[in-house]
Write the structure tokens for this entry.
Amino acid sequence: MSWQPKRLDQLGAVSRGRSRHRPRDAAHLYGGPHPFIQTGDVKHAGLYINDYTQTYSDAGLAQSKLWPVGTLCITIAANIADTAILGIDACFPDSVIGFTPDPHEADARFVKYLFDATIKHRAQKFSQGAAQDNLSQEKLLSLKFDVPKVDEQKRIADVLAAYDDLIENNQRRMALLEESARLLYSEWFVRLRFPGHEHTRITDGVPEGWEQNTLGECVTLNYGKALKAEDRVDGEYPVYGSSGIVGSHEKPLVNGPAVILGRKGNVGSVYWSSKSFYPIDTVYFINAESSSLYLYYVLKHMHFINTDVAVPGLNRDFAYSRPLLRPAATLLRTFLDTVTPIHVQLDKLDEMNKKLHAARDLLLPRLMSGELLA
């Protein structure tokens, strides 16, 4: 198998994203029908980008460009050299470079995996040293990397993409399961269309046999503990911050299952950990004795506002003041009997995805170096 050194522009067309304005400067450019992909969307995508958090109006599209499905997005600011392939036609800003492969020279999937295996690390080292790390298109195009003929690229990409396809399919299943549990909670405890509601008297929004409490009357919000990234020892226990799992550690601080609530940064974010974990100081946690899946969904529907002016934060006394309905015991048991198997399945799919990620990542460097034939 013959691998030859190539630059990215020798494998296809390379062009920088277009966006002349920030949302706060030109609000009329946003909120329309055209997907607008940002660096965070690339970072959090798998092999393909199908989800986005911002859109362009027709005016926004007029000052940008619509890249087609199959374009490889490469971040050059904020997150350096993260990559994902457009699964939809979309615009993106100048902090993202678009690569459109020449079908006779390259497979976009192979190039994406090559970034994951080697190019990303090289590009990140190349971009360090400025006031803010960034990777120019010129620097990116100065990098050479060994690639085989396109047919061999496709064979290698097919092997790795099979893992990503399974991961994505599991993620879709997980999203459907999560939505089914969320809708059940909303139907029973927000809309109050629970089993037997037709025969239950409701007074001031409280069904007969239920209790109206505050969060502070039901639980204690405990503070997480600081654990810097450099002090973590990689292990089996997830480390939770206000944005979710931010790493792992060899020892837990809290026994699961338990609920985590964002305190600083991502205020009011809510997570359920079925296993023991380590909450850092940007979150509160509720101990296992007081946690339940009902409480988890209550908090996800609860309105928390920023109560600290200087830094986004959730004041504990304010959180304690939030109203909380406690349903009749029989209805609560029925709800938990319904959603617990859903979360068991979610945990199984999550564990399966971790194994798929590990297997793919084990193969990745060996395939990308030519050590293994696809």
In short: The domain at 211-326 is CATH 3.90.220.20 (Adenine-n6-DNA-methyltransferase TaqI; Chain A, domain 2). The chain has a mean pLDDT of 92.
